[in-house]
Automatic annotation (TrEMBL):
This is Chaperone protein HtpG. NCBIfam families: PRK05218.1 (NF003555). It is found in: Cytoplasm. Molecular chaperone. Has ATPase activity. GO terms for cellular component: cytoplasm. Keywords: ATP-binding, Chaperone, Cytoplasm, Nucleotide-binding, Stress response. GO terms for molecular function: ATP binding; ATP hydrolysis activity; ATP-dependent protein folding chaperone; unfolded protein binding. It comes from Prosthecodimorpha staleyi. The gene is htpG.
Amino acid sequence: MSSTDTIEQPAESHAFQAEVARLLHLMVHSVYSNRDIFLRELISNAADACEKLRWLAVSDPALNADGAPLEIVIEADPAGRRLTVSDNGVGMTRQELVDNLGTIARSGTRAFLEQANAAKDAAAGQDGGAKDGSRLIGQFGVGFYSAFMVAARVVVTSRRAGSNEAWRWISDGQGTFEVAPADLADAPARGTRIVLELTEDAKDYAEETTVERVVKTYSAHVPVPIRFAKAGEAASRELTDGSALWAKAKSEVTKEEYAEFYGNVSGQWDEPALTIHYRAEGRTEYSVLLFVPSMKPFDLFDPARKGRVKLYVRRIFISDEVEILPAWARFVRGVIDSEDLPLNLSRELLQSNPLLETIRKGVTGRILTELGKLATSDAEAYLRIWEAFGPVIKEGLYEDPDRRDDLFKIIRFKSTKSGDGWRSLADYVADLKENQTRIHYVLADSPERAAASPHLEGFRARDVEVLLLTDPVDAFWVRTALGYDGKPFQSVTQGAADLDAIPLAEGAPKPDAAAAGAAEVAAVVAFVKETLGDRVADVRSSTRLAESPACLVAPDFGPDKEFEKLMSRSQGRSDFTKPILELNPQHPLVAAMARHLADTDRTLVEDAGFLLFGQARILDGEAPDDPADFGRRLVHVMQKLMV
């Protein structure tokens, strides 16, 4: 490469627009911590120049008469501390060099500088400020100036397609720039060459490994091939081929290509369980290539874990920290490439951008649609996804109420009828029993404990299905969900069971003729209620039980008992709602209590009442409220029976 240090023809000296001078001052004084951005911006500009030539050559083929393939070449010179970015795109005239590199469009200039200063202030106060500030570059068309973060001097040589003139632009970023004619022998045949004379602390950017890292991170999929060359060597090698898998038609991509891309974008070794590839067209255009993994990542439930979807704008990588998908879809990996989003908005501005919100809604809806299709067409494949990510998807029932109806279609449950399989809410509603008006569920910390709950006995006797909810999020969404298909959700441990209207299943035990009568049961209930006092909110008989003598339930409008326990563990609360003790009027023990009460043997009945209360607490996973008293009464009853 010929030297650009001296200009043989007269040069015009220009002062930067005032706002540009201030901007360059900010750049030089390192407001932005992520200096990699400069190369992304120069590559983006070069790709735009190539795309512009491609478009202009359609109507004027002479502009690309040589037919040379469009490309970007990055040349590194570690010894000379130089980095050169060249393209054979449309190039610039003298006036375009002055206009494009000497001024910023008035609209947005002040806003950029205000945000840049705000980023600088934030950087002074906390580490994250500078990082966010780096995303401001390019927001208002100032990406080129990021070169001065790493360069003491920038030399731009450009020749407009179809022109016999070439021009050179030179600046050290100190307030002025020069423009002069360039020797055609020392200029590109067409396009632009930018030479950065790197500062001492930026010399690593002239190293091959650094260049390749930055290109692979930010510009691996720009629509123009990128080649790398070392200064003084004729040979060059390809860094990127100008392709993006998501830009291809789905029919043109093989399963192997999808698998390879999934491994690159996700960093995982498993095969994707579901691939979602499409292009949205209309008022907002974007391409989507997403994958649902088949294996659960180790940090899936880490509160600090962020989504793993990469956001691109016109094939330029922008960020993988933007919340494109809702939290319940954080297991999804892949890329979304927008045609319309502005480059380099700050993360906060990008997050609230209405175009991003449109993309978010569209992509989220498509994920739900594709999961629903898979659940219908290949239930076995879908259940593998559900078993890996079901608890996360259910978070959407609580956090994303607008999507609740769609989520209900793909959510699966264990139940008293599911066995080793899973049930959908549609399956549940299809099997409703005569006079059943609610969807019943039980909360527990494990499927085994849920299935062993005495609260299920009356439902089993009537063959009424009960959902077994054992994930922590279940306790939250059932409190806010209004129901499904017009059927409200009802905990089996909350309020009255209202099972009298549902007939007993064939083969279920019939009422015991030796059971206590209604008046006797009422007497036992009243006595136990008086005995327990303010330990309980109420004592009542119930059809909820079939085999056990007693159980505890929450009041009709109180919180579910399992939810209360969950809150107590997370918040250290101890102010539980007083439970209701329900007695099984068909149980022999209740009949025996009625007989002893009639015989005025109230001491034994009192002990039995306290023991039933303690036993019910144990079955609920709690200790008796007074373990010493519980043990004393148990010994007393055993002595009475054994002596």
